[in-house]
From TrEMBL:
This is Threonine/serine exporter. InterPro entries: ThrE_2 (IPR024528), ThrE_Dicarb/AminoAcid_Exp (IPR050539). GO terms for biological process: succinate transport. It is found in: Cell membrane. Its main location: membrane. It comes from the Bacteria. The keyword Manganese does not apply. The keyword Transmembrane applies. It is a multi-pass membrane protein. The chain crosses the membrane at residues 6-22, 27-46, 52-68, 80-102, 114-137. Keywords: Cell inner membrane, Cell membrane, Membrane, Transmembrane, Transmembrane helix. The lineage of its organism: Bacteria, Bacillati, Bacillota, Clostridia, Eubacteriales. One of its GO terms (cellular component) is plasma membrane.
Length: 149
């Protein structure tokens, strides 16, 4: 894991903030989310060598951070996890899949396509699981506050 890659993940998370016209005061926080996701992705990838598992944990970290920042900044979590997830998106894998299809190398296209779908599914599942967990904790907290009053 290098500082250069973490910096690129940070910058790669800032540009979608500009592209999607998200509030500029949240630009640094979105970048931190992308960098955090890349750090978790890199650590898990070095331990497991599975891009799918690493993408899942990276997305889980990005969304957990986004849910926390959403509560702190009183804004929707999507303002943080949409740009933060960009460094984890399997763009080169999708590009390779299409390239193999154009070259009529169907076995390579199949393997990279399955990997791409696995990574995309892992990212989606990581976001969903983290959102469900925070929703569950939020509901428990609201019920606790209501019962104390």
């Amino acid at each position: 894991m290098s500082i250069k890659m973490i910096t690129l993940a940070f910058v790669g998370s800032i540009f979608p903030v500009i592209l999607f016209n998200i509030d500029r005061r949240k630009i640094i926080f979105a970048g931190i989310g992308g960098a955090l996701g890349w750090i978790v992705y890199s650590l898990v990838l070095s331990k497991t060598t599975s891009e799918v598992i690493a993408s899942f944990f990276g997305a889980l970290a990005v969304n957990a951070y986004s849910e926390l920042m959403a509560r702190i900044k009183k804004t929707p979590a999507s303002m943080f996890y949409v740009p933060g997830i960009f460094p984890l998106v399997p763009g080169i894998t999708a590009y390779s899949t299409v390239t193999y299809l154009v070259q009529k190398d169907f076995s390579s296209a199949q393997s990279t396509g399955i990997l791409m779908l696995g990574i995309a599914g892992a990212i989606g599942f990581g976001i969903m699981l983290s959102s469900a967990f925070f929703g569950f904790i939020s509901k428990i907290y609201k019920n606790y506050i209501r019962s104390v009053r």
